[in-house]
Amino acid sequence: MSDTHFLEFESRSVLDEMMAEAVTAVLQQAIATRGKASLVVSGGSTPKGFFQAMAHKAIDWSKLTITLADDRWVPPSHEDSNDRLVQENLLQGPAAAANFIPLVTEDAHPRDAVESVSERLADLGTVDVMILGMGGDGHFASLFPDSETLKPGLDLNSGNTLIAVDPPVAPHARMSMTLPRIFDTRHLLVHLVGDEKRAIWEKASAERDPERLPIAAVIASESPRADVYWAP
Ligand SMILES: O=C1O[C@H](COP(=O)(O)O)[C@@H](O)[C@H](O)[C@H]1O
């Protein structure tokens, strides 16, 4: 089907728990080895249960840096904010001790903040775990098909960490990690739920055309190679 490792679970709640256990093991090992760890998460509707499962894990949260692969250009109080999703579901209880790096500023448009937010991420280095979601149009992070920012966002030689995006259809301007920043990770996970997304994943695996379905760029990657977590 693809070069990726496709893991199937019987339900979304089982997936959330199993993925939380796998991510926790990597982060604990990183903290034991290097004294610190880093986790990049995605937003949208998919990861809420995973975030809630993670928040209960025994991690030295004060040694963990967390940020987002992308966010919508709205205040953190907005219901569409990925930042808000992370704050309300992941950074709860002991997990609130994690160092969270937001991608959104008070600038009018993300293009005005690419430089300053890239500086916030300057010390991130190779992250321990990067988790991507995927939209029904095959986008990941905020790298959308039919968008003028897709090509520069996917350019592995751009040298850029972030890109400001005006999605052609989806609401809100975005700040998104670029593909080279996304691929600078020790572990790459893709979190998918539902038959519709599985069908899109399989279509992207067959077509291998990131311009039509951007997730094809992730599927094609051999290093890092993605582990896909899927449940119906
Ligand atoms: O807009 C976004 O969409 C993708 C997928 O979201 P989902 O609602 O289909 O789970 C998400 O991964 C990304 O972080 C988000 O900003």
From TrEMBL:
Catalytic activity: 6-phospho-D-glucono-1,5-lactone + H2O = 6-phospho-D-gluconate + H(+)
Keyword entries, A-Z: Hydrolase
InterPro entries: 6-phosphogluconolactonase_DevB, 6PGL, Glc/Gal-6P_isomerase, Glucosamine6P_isomerase_CS, NagB/RpiA_transferase-like
Pathway stated in the Swiss-Prot or TrEMBL entry: Carbohydrate degradation; pentose phosphate pathway; D-ribulose 5-phosphate from D-glucose 6-phosphate (oxidative stage): step 2/3
GO molecular function: 6-phosphogluconolactonase activity
Domain Glucosamine/galactosamine-6-phosphate isomerase stretches: 13-221
EC number of the protein: 3.1.1.31
PANTHER family listed in its UniProt record: 6-PHOSPHOGLUCONOLACTONASE
Role according to the record: Hydrolysis of 6-phosphogluconolactone to 6-phosphogluconate.
Family recorded in the similarity comment: Belongs to the glucosamine/galactosamine-6-phosphate isomerase family. 6-phosphogluconolactonase subfamily.
Entry protein name: 6-phosphogluconolactonase
Species whose genome carries this gene: Congregibacter variabilis
